[in-house]
Amino acid sequence: MTDYAEYDHAGLQIRVAEEGERVLVTWRGISDTRDPSLVLWPFLSELVSRLKGETVVIDFRNFEYMNSATVSPLIRFVKELDAVGAKSTLLFDVAQQWQRVNAQCMRSIARTLNAVTVP
After folding, report:
1. Ramachandran bin of 30, using left for φ above 0, alpha for ψ from -120 to 50, beta for the remaining angles
2. How confident is the model at residue 18 (pLDDT cuts 50, 70, 90)?
3. Which of 14, 17, 41, 52 would bridge with 84, disulfide CB 3.0–4.6 Å?
């Protein structure tokens, strides 16, 4: 079993755990800092290198809110996971308007990638 770091900064928590044959990356709380890439990207970049070739589920369903500045590092994270051969599934709570919009955006991006799905 791999030991993964967790992220907790300014109201955003990201938990990473092995769950059978997959790795679950759960986002909770809020992300509303002005430039989240500054603090978020070092964590996500390290995570990308550790998830090479893995089956990954990224779960946003309990994520309360993210500002538009968070979208860019999220897209970069998903694209880089795809580039290292991770098979990623992104889960959103489409009953929430803001998550539905982000799910639609990520579905469009997923069409251009090899191994990303957004059900």
Report:
1. beta
2. very high
3. 52
Q: Is residue 77 part of a domain?
A: yes
| Block residue for tokens 């290292």 | 84
* pLDDT tens digits, 38-83: 999 999 999 999 999 999 999 999 999 999 999 999 999 999 999 9
Domain that holds residue 34: 7-117
Cα separation, 104 vs 94, in Å, equals 9
Among 1, 83, 72, CA closest to 35: 72
Structural domain includes residue 2: no
Residue 91 placed within a domain:
yes
H-type helices in the chain, by residue range? 37-50, 68-83, 97-110
